[in-house]
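Quarterly update from the structural biology core.
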Amino acid sequence: MKFAKDIQLGDPSSNKQNFVDIKLKLLCCRFWLLDLWDCHEMVFPFWRLYWNKNDGGQLIHQEKIFEMSPDYIYIIPPFTSFSSTFINNHIYHDGIHVLGKHFTEHFSEDQLSNRLAHFFIHFNLGVPFDNVYPGIIKIELSDYLKDRVLYLTEKLKVENKDFKLTFNLKLQAFIKEALTNIGPELWQTINIDDRVLKIIRYVEANINEKLKNSEISSVVNMAPNSFARLFKEEMNITLHNFIQNRKIAKACELFEHTNKTIVDVTFDLGFSDRYHFSRVFKQITGLTPASYKSGKYT
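Predicted structure, tokenized:
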């Protein structure tokens, strides 16, 4: 057997192809029986996908109410401020209050009248796709998506910790298929100016540093004020707020996947002290770092 010396010979065409690199990272996937889902003004730095097997759930964004139907899935981009409730048991009008447990194969679906069968996935797509415009996207279940969501929820009744490769592949395929149903207006940020994209990558690579506008703008040989205006025009967010969002997104990732303390994360991400970090964290997510780290949300 002979191997080609030039790797480019693996493609017989001279036409260069450009592909969009999406780095899908799963954070959690669960199927819960909710007794209470009173969550108000939540903001998180990751994507959320919701599907309820029965009626009764509501999502609220900017005073628009989405009556959740089993015929639809609901996708919420990062940094979207929204509220949720289970109308059969609505008690609280502020704060975040969740009461429920894992849906297991031993629970009869005949008992769903006073509970909400709630399937949710949290995930990230990587830069720049985690910085799209906020909102709640309602997507009708196609036959394929319905088949997939029923498969996933049935599997989660049996196993919700150590997932096999087949489950992981089908879960990722389900998410990607759902995302293809989102209109092109949501993805405007992928066509951003090359200088802004370079800085986005710079911020990601140096997220643990105290990033200053003057140092950042010098990377693309622009004056700080000029670059700040360009960034705001392209990303619909100030450079300062973008950096804060990315730091808090990284903090959430560290809380989810490491045993680092709040103090560890504070200094790992370049904050001067825990008070400053906690203030920014709550301003962005609506939760204190301690509440988020405890995992008392869905």
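Residues 278 and 289 are 6 Å apart (CA to CA).
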